[in-house]
Amino acid sequence: MTYIFAHRGSSKDCPENTMAAFKKAFEDGADGIELDVQLTKDGVPVIIHDEKIDRTTNQKGYIADYTYEELLNIDAGSWFSKAFQNEHIPSLEMLLQWIAPLPLLLNVELKNNEIEYDGLEEKTLDLLHRYGMEKRTVLSSFNHYSLIKIRKLNPYIETAPLYSDGLLDPWEYVKVVSSQSAHPYYKTLHPYIMEGFKRNNIPLRPYTVNQKKWMQYFFKWGAQAIITDYPLIARSVLHGDPS
Ligand code: G3P
Ligand code: MG
Known about the structure:
It is a single chain. The chain is α/β, with parallel strands linked by helices. Helices cover about 30% and strands about 15% of the residues. The chain is built from 9 helices and 8 strands. The longest helix is centred in the middle third of the chain and has 11 residues, at about 120-130.
């Protein structure tokens, strides 16, 4: 059975990458949560997609120029709807405190392809270890040097390269970057590519699968998971709702 990962939480119903979005994903019956992590000026791993806070908060500037304490006062919900004005940029630790007792899988995407945050890998691994989350977390990144660094720091934790273009034999590339699974852009996954991953026993979790016909395609192919903004719809498609 294919797992459903909520992309930045249930991000069509709630402001992305906030605790409200993660809680909604759990209510929606998602099996796992995908989120993006970057570092503040004082080195705290926080959950946000863009390198700048402009789009998803009421302030401006790079996340790397704010201390964690400064971020605590910033509204990360009103841009989406007034009802979420009390949402803030969560720290990774806050998320881990919430998720650790719940039966949820986790995909932490290290958002370090534009800014290479010094120590992001070490800090993330340390937190996952402290909250006992290593066995149900996959770490992904568009920065594949970072995946190799993670492997050197921790021989066991699952990693997956994110990629958006057609690679030649991507199942071989997964091994080159010391990973166990792949998180490709869903449109790169032609049937012959799906075959190759299957033949090589490499689990796939395509992103971002929002249309029912693509959900069906990946369920049929037995992708290990899909990453979607619509976990509730994905669940109904998975359980046979044809509408
Ligand atoms: O991890 C899957 C997906 O989140 C990658 O793209 O830009 O939404 O972080 P992005
Ligand atoms: Mg992401």
